[in-house]
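ok trying this again, last paste got cut off
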Amino acid sequence: MIYILSSPAAEKGPLSIPNICAIAKEKGVPVFVDAAAEEPISPNIHIAAGATLVGYSGGKCLRGPQSSGMLIGQKDLCKAAYYQAAPHHCYGRAFKCSKEEAMGLLAAVQQWYKRDHAAEQREWRSWLQSIEARLKPLPSTTFEYLEPEDLSNKSPRLRIHWDANVLKITGTELVARLDAGTPRIIIDAGTGQRPDRMASSVTIMPYMMDPGEDRIIANAIYEGLTKPGHYDNPVVPSGTPAPIQGTWAVTIQYPRGTGEQKFTIEQSGNELSGMQNGEIYNAKLKGVIHADQIELRSNMQVPGNTVPWTFKGSVQGSSITGNVHMGEYGNATWKAVRA
């Protein structure tokens, strides 16, 4: 079977969904399209393009139970999948959703075709406009509306830009403040970093909001931008950068288990680049070193999602020790020795 993650890019080029489906059909190979967050419009665009199976999340735009899902397409393959899941004693039994969730998903599908989707889009946009109106009087603020590119997470978004030199808080600092506030507010990652990248932004997605939450969000952002508190610029150690060019054997102590990796680092003054050879996957490294303090970043492409790595540490001769942050995958400690 061929698996395709649906996206605007997957609709274009020589390996578009229709082209892959046409080639696969000649060879008798089924094609599964992962359309988890898309609108399940009828007639189905992926089935029309030649897909054999299409999967949807029940808990995304269908607004059904979070752990439910829907598989549509060729009947014999859907039946084969059914026998791999509960109530049958096969691979999927451990991942079953309850009978209540199955009926909840059925109700969500039925309700989908009764909902006024155009009215929803207008309501979501009105919430963003309400947030914009609250923040527009603040100095240096500008506003950008981002339109959805396809059926996935189909909703406008509002990106709020400002100069942190004027409002005294960066986008990343504002995101952390909202996350730690009461009520806790989670928004898209912000931009802006002291002291040299003070052009800041945050992005608001109304897709998961309820009526009235636009005022809560607007007030919380307004509070953060008008009463930011005090943030110090990071202290940059002075002194000659430690020489770390070369190959390093890296040991990562995860919360459970140990990983062995290899770094190959190029150095030009304070600037660092190179390769991260992980336990299974690889990534490009970029970073800086000030005196004996090192920071390396990478984005490791793995199936399903990207793992962001931020290594921070101290250099002592031929060894480095420190901490590593892996985004949603948590924190670990690391040490490296010259190979």
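PB: full thing came through this time. Residues 117-226 form a domain with the Aspartate Aminotransferase, domain 1 fold (CATH 3.90.1150.110).
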